Amino acid sequence: MRVKTPSHRISAASRRSVRKVLDFIRRHDNFLVSGHVRSDGDALGSQLAFHHLLKKLGKKSHVVCDRGVLPDYAFLPGCESVGGDPSDLHPPYQAVFTFDSGAWSRLERIAAALDRKALKVVNVDHHASNERFGDLNWIDPSFSSTGEMVWELVKAAGVKPDRAITLNIYTAVVTDTGRFAFSNTTPETFLNAAELAGHGARPSELTKLLYRQRTVDQLRFLAAVIGRIERTENGRVAWVTVPRDLERTLGMTAGDTQEYIDLLMQLKETELAMLFREMDDPPRIKVSWRTTPGIDGIALARKHGGGGHPRASGASITGTMEEVTKRVVEEAVNLLRSGRRLSAKEEAAIARM
Ligand code: AMP
After folding, report:
1. Does the Cβ of 306 fall within 6 Å of ligand 1?
2. 315/300 Cα distance (integer angstroms)
3. How confident is the model at residue 350 (pLDDT cuts 50, 70, 90)?
4. To the nearest whole percent, how much of the chain has pLDDT over 70?
5. For the structural domain made of 12-177+185-210, what CATH number should be given?
6. pLDDT tens sequence across 191-239
7. pLDDT per residue as tens digits for the range 24-58
C-alpha cells in the first residue's frame, strides 16, 4: 500500500525570501558563488547545485571557495571548474552568493581578496548563529541543510532539475544530516529526499560515492585517531587531537573530520565531544564541538569567535595544541559541572534565531 505523502511546509518568511532571491538573480548576470573554507558536503553541494541552476537560467557563474574541492567530494558534478585560491577569481562580479557560511570571514582568503563594499552579497544559510552579513540574507535554521534551501530555489525557478542538481543537493542533505541520523533530520528532510530521489538521485549510488571509496591508508588513519581518544574519568566529556605530526607520520592528510568526532559520540557516556585539529595555514587549532540535547554548542564556540548549531559547532583558535586543548576541555567540563542545561524551549528558540 502506498502512503500518501504529507505536503511540504516552508515558512511564509522563507517563501518571501525565495521570491526575493529569484528576483535578485533576474536583475543580475554575472555571479561569484562561494562557501566556507574547506567546503563540506553541504557547502559544496549547495554551491554547485546553485551554479547549475544559474547556468540553466542563462547566467554567468563562477564557483570559488577557499582551498577548493576536498578529495572526498571530487565526484560532484561541476567540481572540475571550482577555484580554490584567490588567484582563481576573475572579477568584476556583479554579485556574490555565499552558502552555508555563518560569517563573511568564513570565506577566509576569498573574503580577504574581495572588496565587500563594492559587491552585492546574498547570504543563504541554515545556521542559527549566522551574522547576517549580506545585502540580502535568507537564513532559516529549520532547514536541515543549506542544500535544501537551494532545492527550494530550483523548484520555485521552474527549471527542470537534472542529475547535476539532484546529486549535489542529495549530497548536501545526506552529509549534513549524518545520513538522516542527526537531530536536525525532520519530516521535511525526508520529503526533500523523496523529491530528489523522484528526480533521479540514487541513494545507493551516493552511498558508494561518499562512503565506499576508502583506501586502506584512510582506515589506518582512522584506527590511529581511535587510538588517541581521551575522556574525563566519568566519560561525559570525550575528545581527540589530530596534530600535524600524525598526518606527517602516516603520510596522509586527515579526511572529513565529521567522521572522527562521530566516533566519540558513539561512546555511551559521551555528552560533549570535541575534535582538535592542527592547521598550518595560518597556524591555529580547528575545534569542533558535538553535544547531546540540553548542551549549547554555540555558546562554547562563540567564546572563541566561532558558531554553528546547538548540537554541532566549530571555531578556529590560535595557540598550541596543548594550550587550546587544555583550555577548551576545561570549559566543557565546567559547563557540565555547572549543571547549566538548555530547556526544550530554549533549544527551540536557538534553532529559530
Ligand atoms: P565542524 O566543526 O567543522 O564540523 O562544524 C560544525 C558546525 O559549526 C558547522 O555547521 C560549521 O559551519 C560551524 N562552524 C565551524 N567552524 C566555524 C567557525 N569558525 N565559525 C562559525 N561557524 C563554524
Report:
1. yes
2. 9
3. low
4. 97
5. 3.90.1640.10
6. 999 999 999 999 999 999 999 999 899 899 999 999 999 999 999 999 9
7. 999 999 999 999 999 999 999 999 999 999 999 99
On whether the CB atoms of residues 334 and 299 are closer than 8 A, the answer is: no
DSSP-assigned beta bridge partners for residue 60: 30
Q: Is 304 in the pocket of ligand 1 (CB under 6 A)?
A: no
Of the CA atoms within 13 Å of residue 155, those in its CB half-sphere come to 15
- Helix (H), strand (E) at residue 263: helix 257-265
Smallest CA-to-CA distance from 333 within 263, 273, 251 is with: 273
Q: Left (φ > 0), alpha (ψ -120 to 50) or beta: where does 342 sit?
A: beta
Give CA–CA dist 108/72, Å, rounded: 21
pLDDT at 281: 80
CB-CB contact of 46 with 170 (8 Å)? no
Give yes or no for a contact between 288 and 261, defined as CB atoms under 8 angstroms apart.
yes
| Average pLDDT of span 268-291 | 95
Cell of 155: 523548484
The rounded Å distance from CA 166 to ligand 1 centre is 25
Residue 297: CB within 6 Å of ligand 1? no
Three cell numbers written together for 39: 567546503
Atom of ligand 1 nearest to the CA of 306: 20
Could you tell me the three cell numbers for 271?
Answer: 555528552
Name the pTM for this structure: 0.93
Domain chopping of the chain, boundaries: 12-177+185-210, 216-352
Give the CATH number of domain 216-352: 3.10.310.30
